[in-house]
Amino acid sequence: MENHTKDSTMKVSSLNCIDLANDDLHHSVVSLKQACLDCGFFYVINHGINEEFMEDVFEQSKKFFALPLEEKMKVLRNEKHRGYTPVLDEKLDPKNQVNGDHKEGYYIGIEVPKDDPHWDKPFYGPNPWPDADVLPGWRETMEKYHQEALRVSKAIARLLALALDLDVEYFDRTEMLGKPIATMRLLRYQGISDPSKGIYACGAHSDFGMMTLLATDGVMGLQICKDKNATPQKWEYVPPIKGAFIVNLGDMLERWSNGFFKSTLHRVLGNGQERYSIPFFVEPNHDCLVECLPTCKSESELPKYPPIKCSTYLAQRYKDTHAELSIYHKET
């Protein structure tokens, strides 16, 4: 916080906090609904993931990024969007960014073996893993975290269903979160951002899927813009809370809710400090048709978005924001 608080123009956002251990379900749903209508960002506490384990996940993430580049390139992102993404690989805001994002990352999805009937789907398949001799126990730690984060995501989805006046288990169905696309991404940010020169740790964007759970190392950097149409846009920092997830809604939930729930623009500015974070992107099943929910339309509120298949939407968004894999093969 220290470096940022010296900036008198800094605005810090105030977000609702959802306690998953709260017995007052009505209070939790009302608070969540308010957050979703306002800006689509909120904190989640008492989620049941041990703090010691979280520290271990971050420690293992740092060990991977500390490896020599040639070691990391052995697990380069593949066509199923699993694996390592080098600095500048992703360009989320091409209108305002000179180069890509000043971050490197590592995508990990649900492990699907080659003999699985769904293996050929674009976002399923086995993950590339660093050599166990180089990073012993790394894979086991990441797979355990993936399972835990998915459990928390499903608990939040049940509250979201109630906030949308749906049955509590609406999103648990096989075609939604019963067999989802759920991808975690380890991230390391470096350098100093300068928006006036088009240099960003992470360019302004909204997330593609249903929702994102963000774990951070406590270093400030995340900003949100509650009104993307404002001129000029107003950006507010989201301060991390120890032990809490920062959760935001994605574009698919905005489409599902007919625009009532917000998928908000956000970005990351670097201040010269290394910053580590782990977003967990929750998307429904490949074949899920994302269309206006029955409780979000009426004679006076017609659907604003055409129905679209989840995998079709995701494939286009990834294509628009990531470098072509062929450039790396040319370099090697």
UniProtKB/TrEMBL annotation:
Source organism per UniProt: Arabidopsis arenosa (Sand rock-cress)
Single GO term (MF): metal ion binding
PROSITE patterns found in the cross-reference section: FE2OG_OXY (PS51471)
InterPro entries: DIOX_N, IPNS-like_FE2OG_OXY, IPNS-like_sf, Oxoglu/Fe-dep_dioxygenase_dom
Protein name per its UniProtKB record: Fe2OG dioxygenase domain-containing protein
Protein keywords: Iron, Metal-binding, Oxidoreductase
Residue ranges annotated for the Fe2OG dioxygenase domain, each copy included: 180-284
Family: Belongs to the iron/ascorbate-dependent oxidoreductase family.
Residues annotated as signal peptide: none
